[in-house]
Design a protein that fits this description.
Helices cover about 50% and strands about 20% of the residues. The chain is elongated and about 100 Å long.
């Protein structure tokens, strides 16, 4: 049996009879016994509640005396209602009385109904330690930006602004073609999902499978070709992994790219500003450097978190893990729904039950919880807080990822939303914690 939480109202202030037994994995079993006067009070409340719900001849709702209610609904009904009223209130009072940091709903077992004695098994916030965290060393080799990286950016811009002209020669890598294709299995049966008309492909960009695109090389407009290929073992669709498929493909159109010359005129076309090619190269170099620095920082933080996790000593209650798995599954279902896939379709495609999937995410759930608890421990140990200035700085960093015209609106929306600002605060605290630990790790 499970009960929720409730506010304690109009209860006697005398201490409750509570005994505690630790049962391991940050769990505790409470034995809660109600005094006779408490039981009598709850019985009166139960009878009043029932008299409001059941029509009793000669009495307005809620006014029938206890004995009359008992005569009409029976002692057992009053007892059930008494238990329903008493459990949440007395449990909440016991938790506050014993100052227990509970993190899950209790699992309740009624020992006796008269007098009312019950046991509540509950998970507590586990004790956590991050051992010798100041000894953590993080080394990440800086990623340098070279001239060839700038050249790659310019060449991608060049391809983006390319024009295309029809060709009569055999198609080659880099050409854009439009094709019709259809696939069949080894028995010649058409396969669902392997048919397309006027499908655009730039040969060599691997928008389709590389083996498929390789077979397009050398084909001319109007030519039809039949070839057989095997899908890779890591293909995203389970029913096509390692499957041999025969394709009939016709090239309907073929064009070659005509790339613009990279010069000052091209720069103005791309940026909309009067600037030289050298100026653009310097901007690209600067932006790439910022991007690589951010990537290096993220790699350092990932390595730092890995070492924090290795040094974290905590015993997790199973209830916490189960709840985290449920959160992961809910996120997964929402993500699938956005892609137009139901959870049932996913289970059918992966040939897994919900229990199988829950087991798959058990380790991930434990990792997430351990990281959260470890970070909370470190916030306390390092006395990490975030004031208004820290949060403003973090918020400014967040809105920089939005288009310039939307930044003030996004900032305003954050400041009006308590949950959003709580996330901003957590990010600011994380940044300060990581800054401090990464500084220590490089000494």
């Amino acid at each position: 049996m499970e009960i929720g939480y409730t506010r304690v109202k109009n209860l006697p202030i005398s201490p409750m009879k509570v005994t505690k037994e630790s049962i391991g994995k940050s769990q505790i079993k409470l034995r809660i016994e109600l005094e006779p006067e408490e039981i009598a009070d709850y019985r009166q409340k139960a009878a009043k509640r029932l008299s409001e719900q059941v029509k009793i001849p000669g009495f307005r709702p809620g006014t029938a005396p206890y004995d009359v209610v008992k005569l009409n609904v029976g002692e057992a009904s009053i007892t059930r209602q008494m238990i329903d009223l008493a459990l949440p209130e007395t449990y909440s009072k016991a938790i506050m009385q014993e100052k227990l940091p509970v993190v899950s709903r209790p699992d309740v077992n009624i020992v006796t109904e008269e007098p009312l004695v019950y046991e509540a098994t509950v998970a507590l916030l586990p004790e956590v330690k991050v051992k010798n965290y100041k000894e953590i060393k993080v080394e990440v080799k800086p990623t340098e930006v070279e001239e060839k990286d700038v050249t790659n950016v310019l060449e991608n811009l060049q391809k983006h602004y390319a024009t295309y002209a029809s060709i009569d020669r055999p198609a080659k890598k880099g050409d854009r073609v439009e094709i019709d294709f259809s696939g069949t299995d080894s028995s010649g049966v058409p396969l669902e999902g392997t048919v397309s008309k006027n499908h655009p492909v730039v040969i060599g960009e691997n928008s389709l499978l590389p083996d498929f695109e390789k077979n397009l090389e050398g084909m001319k407009v109007g030519e039809t070709k039949t070839f057989t290929m095997t899908f890779p073992s890591d293909y995203h669709a389970e029913n096509f992994k390692n499957k041999e498929v025969t394709f009939e493909t016709t090239v309907k159109r073929a064009e070659e790219a005509q790339l613009p010359e990279i010069n000052d005129e091209f720069v103005e076309r791309v940026t909309g500003e009067k600037k030289t090619l050298e100026e653009l190269k310097k901007e690209i170099m600067k932006n790439l450097k910022t991007q690589r620095d951010n990537e290096d920082r993220m790699r350092k933080e990932d390595k730092l978190l890995e070492q924090i996790l290795e040094r974290t000593d905590v015993e997790l209650p199973p209830q916490l893990i189960e709840e985290e798995v449920d959160y992961i599954l809910e996120d997964m279902k929402a993500d699938l729904q956005e892609k137009g896939i139901t959870f049932e379709q996913y289970m059918k495609a992966t040939k897994k039950t919900q229990e199988d999937i829950q087991k798959d995410y058990q380790q991930e759930a434990e990792k997430r919880i351990k990281i959260r608890l470890a970070l909370q421990f470190l916030f306390t140990e390092e006395n990490i807080t975030a004031d208004d200035a820290d949060m403003e700085e973090e918020l400014n960093e967040i809105v920089m990822s939005y288009p310039e015209g939307e930044r003030e609106k996004v900032k305003s929306e954050h400041k009006k939303n308590t949950q959003m600002m709580l996330r901003v605060k957590n990010r600011a605290m994380l940044r300060k914690l990581f800054d401090g630990l990464l500084r220590e790790s490089t000494k």
